[in-house]
User: What shape does this take?
Amino acid sequence: VSPGTFGKGKLLEPMFLLSGIPGQEDIHLWSSIPFCLMYVISIVGNSVILFIIKTDPTLHEPMYIFLSMLAVTDLGLSIATIPTILGIYLFNYREISFEACFAQLFFIHSLQCIESSMLLLMAFDRFVAIHEPLRYASILTLPRIGKIGLVFLLRGVAIIFPLPLLLKRFQYCRANVLSHSYCVHQDVMKMACSDISINSIYGLFTTLLTVGLDSLLIFLSYVMILKTVLLIASPAECLRALNTCVSHLCTILLFYTPMIGLSVIHRFGKGSSPFLQILLGYIYLLVPPLMNPIVYSVKSKHLRARIIRVFVK
Assistant: This one.
C-alpha cells in the first residue's frame, strides 16, 4: 500500500499501516487468542462491576462510585483499542484511514487522561476516609462527586482535542507504517515530513498537565495517608487502614508504570528494541482494563460476595 498518493502535484490523504509483532506474522492467528480472551474478560469484568454497583444500594458509596467511573473508562479503552488489534491478528487487516486513526488516538488519549483523573479521585477518597472518617459522607456527597467527575471528563477532552487538529495540518510523505496495532500521538507525529516541534512540545505539556500532575497529587495524598496512619495507636488499626489502599495502589502501578516506560522509550529510546516498545504498548493499554476488575473483586469482600451471589444464582 502506498503511504501517500500523489495527484496533480498534491499529496492526498494518506493511509496508515498498523503493525503486529515484527517477524511473527506466521503466528498472528494464534496470537489473536490471548487478545480475544483479554477483550472478553475486560468487557465482561468491567460490565459485571458496573451492574453490581448499580443494582446494590449498599454499594452506592463514594469508593464504589469512583470504581464504577474507572470501569466505564476501562470499557471505553478496550472498545477503542482492541478492534484494530484483532483486525491485524485475525484478518491481517493493517490499513487505517486518516480520520479513523485520528479519532482512535483522540479517544485513547482522552480516556487515559480521564483514567488518571479517576485514580487521583480514588486517592483523595482514601485520604478522606482515613483522615476524616466522621466527615467522610458529608465531604464526598453524590452531587459533589458528579461535579468533580464532570470537571475531569471535560479536562481530558479539552486537553486532548487539539492533538488531532495539530496532526491534521501535516503532510505525510514517509512510509506510514506505525509501530503499534493502534494509533497514538507520539507514533503518528513521527510519520510527518513537516516540523513536529509544536506537536512534541504540546504532547509533553499534556502529559505533564494530566499524568504528571495527577501522579504528583496521588503521591502527596499517600504521604498524608501514611502520616495519618502512623498516628494511629493500634498496629492492627494501622494495618487495617493501609489494607483499604492496597487495591488502589495495585491499580496505580498497573496504569502508570507501562505508560511512563513507553513515553520514555518514544522520546529518548531511539536505539531500543522494537519488541520492547510493542510489548509495553500492549501492557500500557490492555492490562489495566483487564486487571482492575480482578484486583478490586479480590480485595473488596463486599464486592466479591455480591459477584459470587450473582453467578451462583
Remarks:
- The radius of gyration is 21 Å.
- The longest strand covers residues 15-17.
- The chain has a mean pLDDT of 85.
